[in-house]
Every structure is written in structure tokens, then in C-alpha cells.
């Protein structure tokens, strides 16, 4: 009987625990954190990169690739001509070298 | 009319409207979340999730209920979803506990890790037992008991949040108390 009373007392105390729970204030940074999640760096991105649309990005990429190809072929051609001239001069195969003073 | 303008601003995704919404509801939403999930960090994460959900789903809000009621409903659902996820992770431990007494409180579950700053140290153990017992209740009873006894919401508010009549709220609360009495009785008997 005494044990039952004791158990009942414990149960009542457990129910009363709900009344003892105090209000917990939300963290002062909660609003900022949530706003950052809702609007992630939208403003900064808008100001800096909004003009650089995907179409423009693609056009820039194509231009860069074409420029690179052009530069590479030009460089190759010049290099080739220079090498041939140098070779011809070294072995006396150029037209200017064939003109002899003896003729 | 004023609330309708505010809702329209929310639907338009205006930043100042969401700043105002958080100012108005952050404390209440957090209080509801921590009532279900007695851990400050987790409750804050859930509360944040609630506002993200409001942002995503505001276009679905038809105005059949008050905006506050709709937000508390999301808070309740998000909290229950969180508990469900946590419980699934501990399924193995739970399956082990099934071999024991039917009324035995599952001490392996999430509520053994209470971190609630509003619970005083002397009440910590008692509160842990209570939270464990509450989470043995059927979902409908658990929602009503938590919202009324821990979150301190009125029958009217609970009836709006749960879409149930006040008489069924009273009946659910009565059954919840009865079931808690049985669970706690078995727990304290087996404790010795």
C-alpha cells in the first residue's frame, strides 16, 4: 500500500514536471541565420555578376577559343618560315647566296 | 486586409516581409519545436526548417486558416518528422527492446539526450522520464498533450492546428493522461 502511494506520488511529480519547464529564449542569431538561408548572398551576386548572362559567358568562351587557335596557327607558320630560311641560309640554298661574284 | 497584404508580400518573396515574419514568429515557433524536441540546437534547426518551408510553400496557403495556425501546423509536423527520423536511426536498439516488457520505456531512444535549458537540474531526470513516456503515446494523443501541457496552447488553438473539434481534443487529452499514468506506473514499478 505504502509502495503504491509512493509510486503514485512519483507519477504526480512527473506530471508536475511540465509546469516547471521555463520558456527558453531563441538564439539572438536565429533571425540572421534564417534570413541567410532564405536569401543566400542574392544581393552581392546580383550587383557583381548579374550582367554576365549565360549567353555572354558562352560567347566569351567561343571568342577565347578562336583567339587561341588563331594565335597558335600564326605562331606555327612564322616559326616554320623562319626555320626554313635559317636552314637555307646555313647550307647556302638561298637565292641571294647563289649569286656569285665570279659570274 | 492588413494580413492579406502581408501574405501577398510573402508570396512575392519580399525580403522585408520575411524579416517581419521571423520577428513575429521566431519565439513561438521555437517554443513549439522545443516542446516536442527537448534539445535547443535541434529545436533551432527545426524552427529554421519551418521558415524555409513557409518560404517554399506560401503559394499553397489558401487562407482557410490564420497564418499563425498554418505556421504552427508546419512546426508540429516538422518536429514529429524529426523525431521519426531519429527513431528510425535507433531501430536496431528498439528491436532489441521489443523482447522485453511491453510497457517498458525505451531508454535507447532520442529522449535520453535532453538538452533543454528551461528544465532545472533537479527536474532533469523526471522530465526525461516524462518525455520518454510521452513519445510512447499514439501520435494524436502525443500532439495534443505536448501542445497543451508543454507548449501551453489553449484547446481552441490546438483544435485549429490539428483540425479537430474541441471535444475531441478534450477526449484525446484525457486518453493521453490515462495512458501516461499506465506507462509511468509500469516504469516506476520496474525501476526498483
Automatic annotation (TrEMBL), chain B:
Residue span, RNA polymerase sigma-70 region domain: 21-87
Family matches, as PROSITE patterns: SIGMA70_ECF
Organism superkingdom: Bacteria
Annotated keywords: DNA-binding, Sigma factor, Transcription, Transcription regulation
Keyword Transcription attached: yes
Domain spans labelled RNA polymerase sigma factor 70 region 4 type: 132-180
Database matches in InterPro entries: RNA_pol_sigma-70-like, RNA_pol_sigma-70_dom, RNA_pol_sigma70_ECF_CS, RNA_pol_sigma70_r2, RNA_pol_sigma70_r4_t2, RNA_pol_sigma_r2, RNA_pol_sigma_r3/r4-like, WH-like_DNA-bd_sf
The family this protein is said to belong to: Belongs to the sigma-70 factor family. ECF subfamily.
PANTHER family linked: RNA POLYMERASE ECF-TYPE SIGMA FACTO (PTHR43133), RNA POLYMERASE SIGMA FACTOR (PTHR43133:SF51)
The name this protein goes by in its record: RNA polymerase sigma factor
Taxonomic classification: Bacteria, Pseudomonadati, Bacteroidota, Flavobacteriia, Flavobacteriales
Amino acid at each position: 500500500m505504502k509502495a503504491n502511494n509512493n509510486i503514485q506520488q512519483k507519477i504526480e511529480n512527473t506530471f508536475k514536471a511540465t509546469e516547471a519547464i521555463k520558456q527558453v529564449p531563441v538564439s539572438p542569431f536565429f533571425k540572421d541565420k534564417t534570413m541567410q538561408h532564405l536569401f543566400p548572398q542574392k544581393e552581392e551576386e546580383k550587383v557583381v555578376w548579374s550582367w554576365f548572362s549565360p549567353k555572354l559567358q558562352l560567347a566569351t568562351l567561343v571568342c577565347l577559343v578562336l583567339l587561341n587557335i588563331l594565335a597558335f596557327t600564326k605562331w606555327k607558320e612564322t616559326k616554320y618560315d623562319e626555320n626554313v630560311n635559317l636552314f637555307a641560309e646555313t647550307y647556302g640554298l638561298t637565292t641571294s647566296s647563289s649569286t656569285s661574284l665570279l659570274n | 486586409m492588413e494580413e492579406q497584404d502581408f501574405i501577398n508580400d510573402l508570396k512575392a518573396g519580399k525580403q522585408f516581409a520575411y524579416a517581419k515574419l521571423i520577428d513575429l514568429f521566431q519565439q513561438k515557433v521555437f517554443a513549439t519545436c522545443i516542446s516536442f524536441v527537448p534539445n535547443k540546437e535541434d529545436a533551432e534547426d527545426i524552427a529554421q526548417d519551418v521558415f524555409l518551408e513557409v518560404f517554399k510553400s506560401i503559394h499553397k496557403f489558401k487562407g482557410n486558416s490564420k497564418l499563425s495556425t498554418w505556421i504552427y501546423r508546419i512546426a508540429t509536423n516538422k518536429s514529429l518528422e524529426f523525431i521519426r527520423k531519429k527513431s528510425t536511426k535507433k531501430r536496431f536498439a528498439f528491436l532489441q527492446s521489443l523482447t522485453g516488457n511491453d510497457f517498458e520505456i525505451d531508454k535507447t531512444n532520442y529522449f535520453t539526450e535532453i538538452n533543454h535549458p528551461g528544465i532545472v537540474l533537479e527536474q532533469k531526470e523526471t522530465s526525461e522520464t516524462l518525455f520518454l513516456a510521452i513519445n510512447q503515446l499514439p501520435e494524436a494523443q502525443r500532439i495534443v498533450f505536448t501542445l497543451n501541457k508543454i507548449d501551453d496552447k489553449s484547446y481552441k488553438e490546438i483544435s485549429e492546428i490539428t483540425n479537430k473539434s474541441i471535444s475531441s481534443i478534450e477526449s484525446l487529452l484525457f486518453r493521453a493522461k490515462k495512458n501516461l499514468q499506465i506507462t509511468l506506473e509500469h516504469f516506476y514499478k520496474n525501476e526498483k
